[in-house]
Design brief:
It is a single chain. The protein is mainly α and 238 residues long. Helices cover 62% and strands 0% of the residues. It has nine helices and no strands. It binds 4-(Hydroxymethyl)-2-propylfuran-3-carboxylic acid. 4-(Hydroxymethyl)-2-propylfuran-3-carboxylic acid (LUB) binds next to helix 6 and helix 8.
Amino acid sequence: MPEPDHRSRPGAGAETGSPSRTGTGPEPPGPFRVRPIVTRRGPDPQQERATRTRLLVLTAAAELFTARGFRHTSVQEVADRVGMTKGAVYFHYPTKEALTVAVVEQHYARWPLLLAAVTAEGHGPLETAERLLAGAVLAFRDDILVRAGTRLQVERPQIDAELPTPYVDWTELLAGLLARAEALGELRAGIRPRAAARSLVAALFGTQHISDVLHERADIVEHWAETAELLFRAIRAD
Ligand code: LUB
């Protein structure tokens, strides 16, 4: 473990790892589990500073991973980007793999926030699914941590770390919404919620990937609008 420099708090080794990994209790069921957070009696300025530092590091890493991928990004470059020593970065994330896992976890941490925002709009389940996917599309275009997490998932075979399992949480979430839509008579007869959920996830994954490769996602919104119209017309009852 490298020595922390002056930017880091000595004795805070237990904080290494991702910010969302601080809890140890059992995870509640359901997709996009939010890990429990250790609560404190009052604000801890050192803790807050460490959290801010980690976010800066993760954002810099996400920019580099998005542009160059895992293999062509070094911890030294991440450190240079945030004006820290490599040792200070290693203090928070002991390996490039730990940094990578933390970035991918931040990707998935975005979705509970989107889900809460869309759910608060109070639409029916099918409309909720449509709006969630439209919101995800904007994040694939604009959110550097989402973009980095997506590229890193594609590079899984090159990364010697256990990344969160991709695709399953979105499939679970959409299958649940479509099952509710079915119960309300909103689904076309014969449409199976889970099969339709898998198709939606595959379609969105494919759309964002193709748009990324061909146009750096500049056309993702239009392309997803086309595909979503086709798919939701197929699954919605007349
Ligand atoms: C989504 C990606 C990219 C699925 O859920 C995931 O893991 C995803 C990254 O791995 O697309 C499409 C909703």
